[in-house]
Design goal:
Elements (H helix, E strand, L loop, with lengths): L13 E7 L6 E4 L2 H14 L5 E8 L9 E11 L6 E4 L1
Antiparallel strand pairs: 1-2, 1-3, 3-4, 4-5
Length: about 90
């Protein structure tokens, strides 16, 4: 009797982030959730007032094409009214 085959390990997570809003033009990709958060916080402080950030968990397709398939929002972020602190909704 054959041993059951082992399912492949899931791929490591990939996170994309985008600054959205009028004048928001920064984006990035990383495999590290903390690095995505750090990049978003720095980008929001450079972005025009009223911008926010979207962090998404994505995967690469099995076909190998160079596109990201969204598999869920990881977080939303925005600056406080005073513009000194970043608020997160995860």
């Amino acid at each position: 009797m054959r041993a059951p085959s082992r399912l492949p390990d899931p791929p490591p997570p990939i996170y994309t982030w985008d600054i959205v809003g009028e004048g928001g033009s920064e984006a990035g990709v990383t495999r590290d959730h903390d690095r995505a958060r750090d990049a978003v916080e720095a980008a929001l402080h450079r972005a025009p007032e009223g911008c926010m950030a979207v962090v998404r968990r994505v995967e690469l397709p099995p076909s190998g094409r160079s596109i990201y398939i969204p598999v869920g929002n990881a977080a939303l972020a925005w600056l406080t009214g005073e513009g000194d602190a970043v608020l997160w909704a995860e």
